[in-house]
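Hi F.,

I've been meaning to write this up properly since the lab meeting, where we talked about keeping a consistent format for the predictions we share between groups. The idea is simple: the sequence comes first, exactly as it goes in, then the structure tokens exactly as they come out, then a line or two of notes. No screenshots and no reformatting. I'm using this chain as the first example so we have something concrete to point to.
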Amino acid sequence: MLRLTQFVSLILVLTINVFSADVTGKISFSGASPKMPKMKMDADKTCKAMHSTSVSSEEVVVNANNTLKNVFIYVKEGAKPTAAPTVPVTLSQKGCQYTPHVMGTQVGQPFVILNDDPTLHNVHSLAKSNTQFNNAQPMKGMKLNKKFDKPEVMVKFKCDVHNWMSAYVGVVNNSYYAVSNDNGSFAIKGLPAGNYTLEAWHEKYGTQQLKITVADKPVTADFNYSAK
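Output, unedited:
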């Protein structure tokens, strides 16, 4: 039979385990915003015709409120694997750009690469932990169906036809990740109670880590990057 103290401890453990909370935050940016180079699309008349004005690189996107877009935030330590969704995520090639520029997916989740342009693209994955692939998509509407077998942050994509095209995909084994939006905010929903290490990844400015504790209340986790 369980002693009273053991019984109370068991109840506390069971109670804590049912708690979860949302983790929200912002990716602040300080310093002068770097000037991004223009994408030189002249080599492909089809690409150039899709844009009435010049298009800048998305390596650094500083929002109007001095925050960063396209930062990948995920639980680096402490989270248990969750079942992969059966609904696919899609990386599109539209206007001779990858959309979105930064995104996430789970191990084993269907991953679709779509050519939305009436021109040839070449999808080249530069994965290190996962199997690389390099496939041509010469026609609009073509789809490439893939899955990732291992966690990897980040997998870079490029187009061998259009050297200005790039994208980054964070592959994780759970659903606890997000990408900062056009006001620099992010939200990771329903993280179970526990102690975790969050990591923020940015294409130019690298990674930052933050320790958090989740119980039964929402958690705020803010990161700050500065110009180099």
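Notes:
The chain is about 10% helix and 45% strand.
The helical segments are 4-18, 45-49.

If this format works for you, I'll send the rest the same way.

G.
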